[in-house]
Amino acid sequence: MPSLLRVEDIKKYFPVERGIFKKEVARIRAVDGISFSLDKGETLSLVGESGCGKTTVARLILRLLEPTSGAIYFKGQNISTLDRKEMFKVRGLMQIIFQDPFGSLNPRQRVGDIIGEALSIHNLAQDRRRERIGELLRTVGLEEECIWRYPHQFSGGQRQRIGIARALAVEPELMVCDEPISALDVSIQAQILNLLKELQERFDLSFIFIAHDLAVVKHISHRVVIMYLGKIVELAETEELYSNPLHPYTKALLSAIPTIEKRERIVLRGEIPDPSHPPKGCRFHTRCPIAKPECSEREPAPKEVTKGHLVSCYLF
Ligand SMILES: Nc1ncnc2c1ncn2[C@@H]1O[C@H](COP(=O)(O)OP(=O)(O)OP(=O)(O)O)[C@@H](O)[C@H]1O
Ligand SMILES: [Mg+2]
């Protein structure tokens, strides 16, 4: 069976322009040659520090941004070459949920209208439409009466539920969740994660789930991708990644999770380098605790160490 989504060697470089003639002086390599696939009903998480290119990948998948190069296949079709009309049909099968549920909901619209607007692609009769809005609200754990209220009358967690109901309204197959719980209280985070998991089982949804730490994604991901400065450094099934991390960067991210039996914390030195001038060789070598001289010379190619476990590091 082909994958639902396949991303092939995508790159996105943003120009840095100066002066009145907008001369290009550098290029930010936000995403620099990334490939992965996603199956139906699967959750693949993208994890990495701020600025490593996670949101850019999300926007490329939805074609909210055009890639500098590479291709994206959705249900076997190369969507990178679709025209506006063809893309409109595909877009209905993909939805994005953002970190800030307040910023993404129109404050002047009632909840009923926010969800109703998303439903408009289905051409439902008025009474059926009202019924469907109620159904969607109940599906995400909200009362039907919420339709009369405005976004500011809800808590952060509830607003995120409204955002999820709106995304579900179009009956998508793929949901891209860009840090959907980062802005929420810890006690609420687990509730939203459970809701997403429940919806996945019920509607056979596929998720790309973005987060910047590994603690959050463990219980919802089937596979995890670790990103660093626009590249994938490691990709593995969740169990395998947490029990047998290979890349020194993954090990550092894992050591930052507070656990009961204290693991030794690996603190990375230095700052994340400037993505317009990434380090030569392995991009991580400037911060790597075990870097060797050769790491600054050539870039390590991704290697499949065991089935489905990829790592880009000279040690392997
Ligand atoms: N429209 C843009 N124009 C120029 N540079 C951009 C643009 N969008 C993103 N970038 C740059 O691309 C890099 C990757 O950004 P991106 O937002 O994808 O990172 P991220 O991993 O989502 O980070 P965060 O965890 O902070 O959300 C950053 O250096 C960012 O400054
Ligand atoms: Mg982001």
Q: Quick gist of this model?
A:
With about 325 residues, the chain is an alpha/beta fold. The chain has helices spanning about 55-60, 85-90, 110-120, 125-140, 155-170, 185-205, 215, 240-245, 250-255; strands at about 5-20, 25-40, 45, 70-75, 75-80, 95, 175-180, 205-210, 225-230, 230-235, 305, 310.
Task: Please give a structural write-up.
This protein has helices at residues 54-61, 84-91, 111-119, 126-139, 156-169, 186-203, 214-217, 238-243, 248-255, and strands at residues 5-18, 23-38, 43-47, 69-74, 77-78, 94-97, 174-178, 206-211, 223-228, 231-237, 303-306, 309-311. It has 316 residues and is α/β, with parallel strands linked by helices. An eight-stranded mixed beta sheet has the order 6-7-8-3-9-10-12-11, with helices on both faces. A four-stranded antiparallel beta sheet has the order 2-1-4-5. Helix 3 (111-119) crosses helix 4. The longest helix is centred in the middle third of the chain and has 18 residues, at 186-203. The chain is globular, with a radius of gyration of 21 Å.
Number of domains: 1
Largest sheet, in brief, is: 8 strands, mixed
What is the residue-averaged pLDDT? 93
Query: Beta fraction of the residues?
Result: 15-25%
CATH architecture call: 3-Layer(aba) Sandwich
Shape: globular
Q: What is bound: which ligands?
A: adenosine-5'-triphosphate, magnesium ion
| Number of helices, where a helix is a run of at least 4 consecutive DSSP H or I residues | 9
Q: Segments where pLDDT lies below 50 for 5+ residues?
A: none
Order of strands in the sheet with most strands? 6-7-8-3-9-10-12-11
Question: Could you please say which CATH topology applies here?
Answer: Rossmann fold
- Supply Rg: 21 Å
CATH top-level class = Alpha Beta
Q: Give me the strand/helix succession.
A: EEEHEEHEHHHEHEHEEHHEE
Helix/strand class: alpha/beta
CATH H level, superfamily name:
P-loop containing nucleotide triphosphate hydrolases
Approximate helicity band? 25-40%
Overall number of strands: 12
Cα end-to-end separation: 31 Å
